Structures are given as C-alpha cells and as structure tokens.
Amino acid sequence: MSAVPDIIEAEVLEIDGSPAPPPPQPRQSAQSRAEDAWRSMRGRVVTFDRRWWPLWVLLGIVAVVLLAVVACFVAVFVVVAKVIGGVLRILTGGGPARTGAALSRRSF
Asked: Where do transmembrane segments lie in this chain (predicted)?
C-alpha cells in the first residue's frame, strides 16, 4: 500500500463552466475594523433605546446610592475630626472651642 498524503491542495480553475471565485481580500487590522464599527454607529448613538430604560433606572439608583454612601463617609470623617480636635484642644489647654460668634459682633 502506498502512503496517502494527509493534505491535498488543488487550485480550482473552473466549476460547471463558471469561472473560479475571486481570491479572498486581505483582512483588515483590528484597529481599522474598530474604527469602521464606530463610523457605522455615529448616527445611532445620539438617542437611547427605549428597551434599555430599566437598566438606566437601575444604574441611576446605584449611582445615587454610591453618592449617598460617599457623602456619609465624608460627614463621619468631619465629625470624628472635630471631636478629636476638641479633645486635643482640651488636653493641650488651648481653651474653649472657637465658634466664630465673636467675629460677627464686633465691639468698638
């Protein structure tokens, strides 16, 4: 028995009287394909799709909750800083806390 090659290559010149299909065009690079995709989306990105409104509502709620959490952390930090500052002022003998009321009522 003779050995049969694993791969057989042949060039098709004609099938049933019709010419062979044109050779495939070289593929574009990934960057040029991405640019073409953005160019095709240019007119459609302006408005939101109505089908996605639940997602936008959910994302809005998440954003508001995150903003509230950050605001709470900032408020807690300010309160703790004021308490620590007051305790240090008392321990070092810096006097009572300055409220700023004396600045608004000047005595001449």
From this structure: 55-81
Name the domain count of the chain.
Answer: 1
d(CA 34, CA 28) in angstroms, rounded, equals 10
How confident is the model over 20-50, as pLDDT tens digits?
Answer: 667 777 666 666 777 777 777 766 655 667 7
Q: Which domain holds residue 90?
A: 68-95
Side chain identity at residue 15, one-letter code: I
**CA 74 – CA 53 distance, rounded (Å):** 32
Q: Which two three-digit tokens encode residue 27?
A: 């593929």
pTM for this entry:
0.44
Residue 107 lies in a domain: no
